[in-house]
Each structure stands twice: as structure tokens, then as C-alpha cells.
Design brief:
Elements lengths: L3 H13 L11 E8 L8 H26 L3 E4 H9 L8 H4 L5 E7 L2 E9 L6 E8 L5
């Protein structure tokens, strides 16, 4: 298991990294801070325990970054998923994240946005604590 300090170091490294020069649309980075085991044969109790761990870890990171950058905006990605399903354009990386992350805690820092969330692509798949950093379109 990784620590809050490890997560913060990853976030800072991604914030400092340039976006690719060749791209379509806004630049962004998405990285897993932590990934659980999968749940193909797990009972619901185990799934709930792991989700609680991931949400607690997210909560600690949100508190630390709130002290550093101020209160985040909470972005409900269900609205983004609905727009995507209706064929409306959704900017990357939200077009991908909305399929498995229900909400992002988003800060605007030094001209970029930083988002944190917990997601799970399907009941059997692992939970992911992730960070997304972009240059426009959110926050």
C-alpha cells in the first residue's frame, strides 16, 4: 500500500510534467494512485470494505490538498456520462472517466486543474484511486 506522501509526490510530478505536443484537444494526464484487487469471486462484504478504504484514502488526500489549495469543486460525472450517452461532446479525459468515476474533487492550480476520485469500471473490476490533471475544460 502506498502512503499519502507517495500520492502527493505523484500528483506533484504530474503537475510538473508537460502535456504531449501532438494531441487532439486539451492536454491531460491520468494516473492511478492505488488499484485494488479485482472482485471476480469476492463477496459483497469484501467489496464494501475495500471501497471504504479507498474512500477514506481519498478523503485524506482531499483534506491535505484543501489545506494547500483551498476547497475543491465537486464535479458530478453522472451529468457528464449522460451528456456523453446522448452524443454530446465531452472533453477528454472526462469522456473516459465518466464511465467509472462518479465524482471528482477538482482544484484549479497554476493554470491547470487537478482532480481526484475513486472509480470502479464494473462490479468485478478493481477500485482505482486516481488523479487527473488537465489544462482546460474543468474546474
Amino acid at each position: 500500500m502506498t502512503s499519502t506522501a507517495d500520492h502527493l509526490a505523484t500528483i506533484e510530478a504530474l503537475r510538473a510534467r508537460d502535456f504531449p505536443a501532438q494531441r487532439r484537444g486539451p492536454g491531460f494526464h491520468v494516473a492511478d494512485l492505488r488499484v485494488s484487487e479485482d472482485f471476480w469471486d469476492a463477496d459483497l462484504t469484501r467489496v464494501e470494505e475495500v471501497l471504504e478504504e479507498f474512500e477514506a484514502e481519498l478523503g485524506v488526500l482531499v483534506q491535505v490538498l484543501t489545506l494547500r489549495w483551498g476547497a475543491p469543486r465537486v464535479l458530478d460525472l453522472a451529468d457528464v456520462l449522460e451528456r456523453s450517452a446522448m452524443g454530446e461532446p465531452v472533453p477528454p479525459p472526462l469522456d473516459d472517466l465518466c464511465g467509472y468515476v462518479p465524482e471528482l474533487y477538482v482544484w484549479r492550480v497554476d493554470g491547470r486543474w487537478v482532480g481526484l476520485g475513486v472509480g470502479q469500471g464494473d462490479r468485478e473490476l478493481p477500485f482505482q484511486l486516481l488523479v487527473a490533471i488537465g489544462e482546460s475544460g474543468v474546474g
